[in-house]
Design brief:
Blueprint: E1 2-11, E2 14-21, H1 22-26, E3 30-34, H2 41-53, E4 80-87, E5 90-97, E6 100-103, E7 110-113, E8 116-123, E9 128-133, H3 136-147, H4 151-157, E10 159-161, H5 162-170, H6 173-184, H7 187-224, H8 241-306, H9 308-324, H10 328-365, H11 369-373, H12 385-400, H13 403-441, H14 443-521, H15 523-528, H16 558-596, H17 601-622, H18 625-678, H19 684-729, H20 734-740, H21 744-768, H22 771-778, H23 784-847, H24 859-882, E11 887-892, E12 904-909, E13 914-917, H25 923-944, E14 952-956, H26 964-976, E15 983-987, H27 991-996, E16 999-1004, E17 1011-1015
Parallel strand pairs: 3-15, 3-16, 10-14, 14-15
Antiparallel strand pairs: 1-2, 1-4, 4-5, 5-8, 6-7, 8-9, 11-12, 12-13, 16-17
Length: about 1000
C-alpha cells in the first residue's frame, strides 16, 4: 500500500481545505510530521484511517461521526476526506463525508444530512477515473479485502503508536494476548475452545441428567423393594454408577420373587381357615336365635297369665259401654241444653256487671246518668228484659242530639293537626335552610376542583390527538426503515450481480481484443487471398505478387472476430442491465433512507412502541372527560336546587305566619261552642262515647236476659227425657249410664287391647309348639361371641395375607418395570458417556487444564505464542542494529508462578549474557525496543495479511528519550526501510529531527484553524 495524496476539508482542527502530497514526501523515503501540541498532527493520521475505514482510531470516534467536523469550518462547508492510494496494484481514490448538520434551504434551523462515501479506480488505459461504488458497506469490504487488515490491525501496523507498544513490551501475558488476538484475529481458536467447553458442559449435563434419572429410578426401586435394596454410594456423573444400579436391581428382583411365593402360600392357608370359621359362626348364630325365640315365648306366656284379671275387667267394661250407647243421644241432648243455659246465664251476668260498672262510672264523673235513672226506668242488676229495652231506647235518643257538637269537635282536632303541621314545616324549612347554607358555603371550592378535573381530561384528549398525529408518521418511518433494510440487502445483491456482470464483460472484451489482435496479425494472409495476377494490390498498388502471405493454422477470420465482438457487446448489455437494476434499487434505497433516515429500525420500532404507550395513556386519561363533565353538571344542578330550596323555604315561612293567625281565631270560636256541648265531660266525643256504650250495654243486657229465660225451659225438658231413657237401658240413674259410656278413642283403645291379647295368646301357643325351637331350648347356650371372635380373627388373617400377596406382586411388577427402564437408560446413555469422555479430554487439552498439557497453554495462547515468536525474531533484526548488537528479543513460554505459560517476552543482554524481563529496560531502551517490536509486528502482520506490501508507515513519538548516538542508529534502521521501497513518516516534537530530516510536513495552528505546510525532499 502506498499513499499518494490526502485532501482534508473541515476535518478536525482544519477549518478549510488542505492537501498532503505523499508522493513528494515519500520520494525522500523518510519524512517528518511535526507541529505544536494541538495543531493536528494526529488528525492527519486520523484522516487517513477515516478515509479507509470510515472511523478514526480509539476514543476519538463518536457515535454518529458528528464530532469529526471542524469547529472552525464555515457554515456551508461540508466535512470531507479524500485519499488517493495504490493497493494491490490498483490505483484507488476514497472520499468520505461524515454526517453533518447543514442550514435548511428553506426557513431557519438545521437539518441532519447523512454520511456519504465514494470509491473510484483509475483506468490507465482510458486515462480517467471510474466509479466503483457509493455504498459504505461495499467500500469498507473492498478496502479491508485489498489491505487484508482490519482497522485495529491497520492502526497497529501502519500507524505505529509507540506508547501502545511500550505497554505491550511491559504487559503481562493476558494483556499481551488481548492485543495479539486483535491483530492476528485468533478469535476463531478461542471460539474452538469455547465451543469445546460448551460441548463438554452440554455432554456432561446430558450424562448427569441420565445418571440422575437412573439414580431416581434406583431410589424408586429401593422404595418398591421395601428396604431390601442397597443403593451405591455414587453421585451422577461418576463412573460405575450404571453397573452398580443394575446389580442392585437384580438382587432386589430375586428377593421380591421369593417373598411373593411365601405370601401366596400364606394366603391359601388363610382362605381355608376363614371358610371354616364362617361356617361355625353361622351354626352358633342359628342356635342362639332358636334359644332366644323359645325363651321369649315363655316370658310372653307368663306375662299373659299375670294380666288375666285385667283382661276380664276390660271385657266387662266393654259390655257396659255397649249398653250405654242406647242412652247416649239423650245424654248428648241434655248436655247441650245444660251448656247452652250456662252460656246464656254467664252472658247475662257479664252484661249486667258491665252495665253496673258503666252506670257507676257515669255517676262518678257527674254525667247525666242520674237524670236517666230518674226517668222512672229500672236499670238495676235485677231489672227484667223489658225494662232494659226501654232504657236503651231513651239513651239512643239522647245520643242523636250530640251530632253537631261532634262535627265541631272534629274540626277543632283538624285545626290543631294543621297547626302542628305548620310547626313541623317551620322546623323542616329551618333544617333545609341550614343544610343549604352549609352546602353552598363550599360551592366555590367544589366547582374549582370539578373544573380542574374537566380541564385535565381535556388536556389529555388534546395530547391524545397530538400523539395520534405523531403516530402515523412514526409508523410510516418505521415501514420505510424496514423497506430501507430490505433495499440495502437488495442493493448488496444487485452490486454483486453488477460485479459479476462487469467481470464477464471485461473477460468477453479481452477475448474479443485477443481475437482482433490475432486477426490483425494474420490480416496480410487474409488480404493475400484476395490478390490476383495482374490486379493491383489494395495496399501497395503493385500488380506483381511474388511472395503473398499464407494463412497459418491458428488464423482468425472475420466471422470469429464478429462472434467475439457480439459476445462482448452482449456482456456489456448484461452489465448495463445489471447497473440499471442497481441504479433502481439504489434510488429506492435513497428514497427509503430519505424518509427513514439513518436511525436503526429497532430504535424506530422502540419509538413507535413508546408513542403507542403514551397514546394509550392519554386516551385512558381523556376517557375521564365525560365522567368529570357529568359530575360538574350534576354539581351545578345541585347548586341550583339548593338555591331554589332556600328561596322556597323563605316564601313558605312568610305564608305560614298569616295561616297561623287565622287558625288561632277559628280555634277560639270552636272551643267556646264545645264547652257548652260537652258539659262536665272531657269532650263531646267522650260524652257521645258514654251514651253509645250505655245504649250498647242496655241492648245487650236485654237480649241476654231473654236468652237465659229460654234456655232454662229447654234444660228442664231435656232432664225429663234423659231419666226415661236410662231406666229403659237398665241403669238406675242417668249418671250411671253416663259413667258407663265410652268415647270413640277410649272404645278403640279398649277394643285394640282385647284384640292384641287374643293375638298374643295365639302366637305364644304357636312358638311353644315348634319342634326345632323346643329341641334348641334343651341344648346348652350357644357361644356366638366366641364364634364371632374366631371368624373376625380368621378374616383379619385372610386380609393381611391377601394384602401381603398383592404388595409382593406389585413390588415384583414395579421392580421389573423400573429395572427394564433403567437398563434402557443405561444402553441409551452409553454413547453419550463415550462422547462426553472424548469431548471432555479435548476441552481440557485446549483449555490448558489437562494433565497432558504440561505448560497449561490454551489453544489460542499456543497460536499466539507462535506468532509472538515470529514477531520477536523479526524485531530482533532491527533491535540489534539499534542497540549496537547488545539486545535480542526472545519469546518465553515459561509459566509465571501458578499461572499459564505461552506469551512471555524477555530481552537477552549480550554484554552480560543473561536473559531478563523487558520491564528492566530504561526509557530510551524501551523506546527503540518497542519501535523494533512495532516494525517486526508490522512485517509479521503484513505477511499474515497475505503479503500485502505496506509502502507507507507512520511512527508516532518517542524519539525524545534517545541520545544522539542511539537516535542516529534508530534513524539508520528507519532509513534502511527504503531498501524495501518504503517511506516512513515520523510524528515527533524533537527539534533535532527537523535538522536531520529534510522532507517535512508541518502543521501550523491558528485562530481560524490549522493548516499544513510541506517543504523539502
Amino acid at each position: 500500500m502506498r499513499l499518494h495524496r490526502l485532501d482534508i476539508t473541515a476535518f478536525g482542527p482544519f477549518g478549510g481545505s488542505q492537501r498532503v502530497d505523499f508522493d513528494t514526501l515519500s520520494a525522500a523515503g523518510l519524512f517528518l510530521l511535526h507541529g505544536p501540541t494541538g495543531a493536528g498532527k494526529t488528525s492527519v493520521l486520523d484522516a487517513v484511517c477515516y478515509a479507509l475505514y470510515g472511523t478514526v482510531p480509539g476514543a476519538r470516534q463518536s457515535g454518529q461521526g458528528l464530532a469529526l467536523r471542524s469547529d472552525h469550518a464555515a457554515t456551508g462547508t461540508r466535512t470531507a476526506v479524500t485519499l488517493d492510494l495504490t493497493v494491490a496494484g490498483r490505483r484507488l481514490e476514497v472520499t468520505r463525508q461524515p454526517p453533518w448538520e447543514r442550514p435548511k434551504k428553506r426557513g431557519s434551523g438545521t437539518t441532519l444530512e447523512k454520511a456519504q462515501s465514494w470509491l473510484r479506480e483509475y483506468d490507465a488505459t482510458a486515462g480517467a477515473w471510474k466509479d466503483l461504488s457509493r455504498s459504505h458497506q461495499e467500500i469498507g469490504e473492498e478496502i479491508t479485502q485489498l489491505l487484508g487488515m482490519s482497522r485495529e490491525q491497520f492502526c497497529q501496523v501502519v500507524l505505529l503508536p509507540q506508547g501502545d507498544f511500550a505497554r505491550f513490551l511491559r504487559a503481562d501475558a493476558e494483556s499481551r494476548g488481548r492485543l495479539l488476538g486483535r491483530l492476528f484475529d485468533t478469535h476463531r481458536f478461542a471460539e474452538v475452545e469455547k465451543r469445546l467447553a460448551e460441548r463438554r458442559r452440554a455432554a456432561e449435563a446430558r450424562v448427569r441428567e441420565g445418571d440422575a434419572s437412573l439414580l431416581a429410578d434406583a431410589h424408586r426401586m429401593q422404595q418398591a423393594a421395601g428396604g431390601a435394596m442397597t443403593l451405591p454410594e455414587l453421585q451422577p456423573g461418576e463412573p460405575g454408577l450404571a453397573e452398580a444400579v443394575l446389580t442392585a436391581a437384580a438382587v432386589a428382583r430375586a428377593t421380591a420373587r421369593e417373598r411373593l411365593t411365601i405370601a401366596h402360600c400364606r394366603l391359601t392357608a388363610a382362605e381355608s381357615a376363614q371358610a371354616a370359621a364362617e361356617r361355625e359362626l353361622g351354626e352358633a348364630r342359628e342356635l342362639a336365635r332358636l334359644q332366644q325365640r323359645f325363651a321369649e315365648a315363655r316370658e310372653r306366656a307368663a306375662r299373659l297369665e299375670e294380666h288375666a284379671d285385667a283382661h276380664r275387667a276390660a271385657q266387662e267394661r266393654m259390655d257396659r259401654a255397649r249398653k250405654a250407647e242406647a242412652v247416649a243421644p239423650a245424654l248428648e241432648l241434655r248436655d247441650a241444653a245444660d251448656a247452652e243455659h250456662h252460656r246464656a246465664t254467664r252472658a247475662e251476668a257479664r252484661v249486667r256487671a258491665l252495665l253496673r260498672d258503666a252506670l257507676g262510672a257515669e255517676a262518678t264523673t257527674g254525667g247525666r246518668s242520674g237524670a236517666a235513672a230518674g226517668d222512672g226506668v229500672d236499670v238495676s242488676a235485677h231489672a227484667g228484659a223489658s225494662g232494659l229495652a226501654v232504657a236503651a231506647r231513651r239513651a239512643a235518643e239522647e245520643l242523636g242530639g250530640l251530632e253537631s257538637a261532634r262535627r265541631a269537635e272534629q274540626r277543632l282536632d283538624d285545626l290543631l293537626a294543621e297547626r302542628a303541621g305548620l310547626d313541623r314545616e317551620e322546623r323542616a324549612d329551618a333544617d333545609v335552610l341550614q343544610e343549604a347554607e352549609a352546602w353552598l358555603a363550599g360551592w366555590e371550592e367544589t366547582r374549582t376542583g370539578l373544573h380542574s378535573a374537566v380541564e385535565a381530561a381535556q388536556e389529555a384528549a388534546t395530547r391524545a390527538e397530538q400523539l395520534a398525529v405523531q403516530r402515523d408518521p412514526a409508523r410510516k418511518r418505521l415501514a420505510a426503515a424496514r423497506q430501507r433494510d430490505q433495499f440495502a440487502r437488495d442493493t448488496d445483491d444487485a452490486q454483486r450481480q453488477v460485479t459479476a456482470a462487469t467481470e464477464r464483460a471485461l473477460k468477453a472484451r479481452a477475448e474479443w481484443l485477443d481475437v482482433k489482435e490475432q486477426r490483425l496479425h494474420g490480416i496480410a494472409a487474409e488480404l493475400a487471398a484476395q490478390l490476383s495476377d495482374g490486379e493491383p494490390c489494395a495496399v501497395c498498388g503493385a500488380t506483381e505478387h511474388p511472395a503473398p502471405a499464407r494463412k497459418n493454422a491458428g488464423h482468425v477470420g472475420r466471422e470469429t472476430e464478429e462472434r467475439a465482438l457480439a459476445a462482448s457487446q452482449h456482456a456489456d448489455e448484461q452489465r448495463a442491465e445489471a447497473e440499471r437494476r442497481l441504479g433502481i434499487v439504489q434510488r429506492a434505497l435513497a428514497a427509503a433512507e430519505g424518509e427513514a433516515g439513518d436511525t436503526p429500525t429497532e430504535q424506530l420500532a422502540s419509538q413507535v412502541r413508546e408513542l403507542e404507550e403514551l397514546y394509550a395513556e392519554a386516551r385512558a386519561n381523556a376517557s375521564a372527560l365525560h365522567t368529570a363533565s357529568e359530575r360538574l353538571r350534576q354539581a351545578e344542578q345541585e347548586h341550583e336546587r339548593r338555591v331554589t330550596a332556600r328561596q322556597q323555604a323563605a316564601v313558605r315561612a312568610a305564608s305560614r305566619v298569616a295561616r297561623r293567625d287565622a287558625l288561632d281565631r277559628e280555634r277560639t270560636t270552636l272551643e267556646e261552642e264545645l264547652a257548652q256541648a260537652r258539659g262536665t265531660a272531657a269532650s263531646v266525643s267522650a260524652r257521645a262515647t258514654q251514651l253509645e256504650r250505655r245504649v250498647a250495654l242496655l241492648t245487650e243486657a236485654a237480649d241476654a236476659a231473654r236468652a237465659a229465660e229460654d234456655t232454662a225451659q229447654r234444660l228442664k225438658d231435656a232432664d225429663a227425657r234423659l231419666a226415661d231413657a236410662a231406666f229403659r237401658a237398665g241403669f238406675d240413674t242417668p249418671q250411671a249410664a253416663a259413667a258407663a259410656l265410652l268415647d270413640a278413642a277410649a272404645h278403640r283403645e279398649l277394643q285394640h287391647r282385647l284384640d292384641a291379647r287374643q293375638s298374643e295368646e295365639a302366637a305364644v301357643r304357636a312358638v311353644l309348639a315348634e319342634d326345632d325351637t323346643a329341641a334348641a331350648a334343651r341344648r346348652s347356650p350357644a357361644d356366638v361371641a366366641g364364634a364371632q371372635q374366631a371368624a373376625a380373627a380368621a378374616a383379619q388373617r385372610l386380609r393381611e395375607a391377601s394384602s401381603a400377596r398383592d404388595a409382593a406382586a406389585r413390588r415384583c411388577a414395579e421392580l421389573d418395570r423400573l429395572s427394564a427402564r433403567s437398563a434402557d437408560g443405561v444402553r441409551a446413555l452409553a454413547p453419550l458417556r463415550e462422547e462426553y469422555d472424548r469431548v471432555a479430554r479435548l476441552a481440557a487439552l485446549t483449555a490448558g487444564t489437562s494433565a497432558e498439557n504440561e505448560r497449561r497453554m490454551r489453544l489460542e495462547s499456543y497460536v499466539l505464542a507462535a506468532r509472538l515468536e515470529q514477531v520477536a525474531a523479526a524485531a530482533t533484526v532491527r533491535l540489534q542494529r539499534m542497540s549496537s548488537g547488545r539486545y535480542t528479543l526472545v519469546h518465553s513460554d515459561d509459566r509465571a508462578g501458578r499461572g499459564r505459560s505461552g506469551l512471555g517476552l524477555h530481552v537477552v543482554d549480550a554484554w552480560t549474557g543473561r536473559e531478563r524481563d523487558t520491564a528492566t529496560l530504561s526509557g530510551g531502551e524501551t523506546f527503540f525496543a518497542s519501535l523494533a517490536l512495532a516494525l517486526g509486528l508490522a512485517d509479521v502482520v503484513t505477511d499474515e495479511a497475505g503479503g500485502v506490501r505496506l509502502d507507507t508507515l507512520f511512527i508516532d513519538e518517542g524519539f525524545g528519550s534517545l541520545d544522539d548516538q542511539t537516535l542516529d542508529e534508530v534513524l539508520d534502521v528507519l532509513d534502511s526501510l527504503r531498501e524495501r521501497d518504503r517511506s516512513v513518516g515520523i510524528v515527533s516534537h524533537v527539534a533535532d529531527l527537523r535538522r536531520r530530516i529534510h522532507a517535512q510536513l508541518e502543521v501550523v495552528k491558528g485562530r481560524s484553524g490549522s493548516v499544513v505546510r510541506q517543504r523539502g525532499q
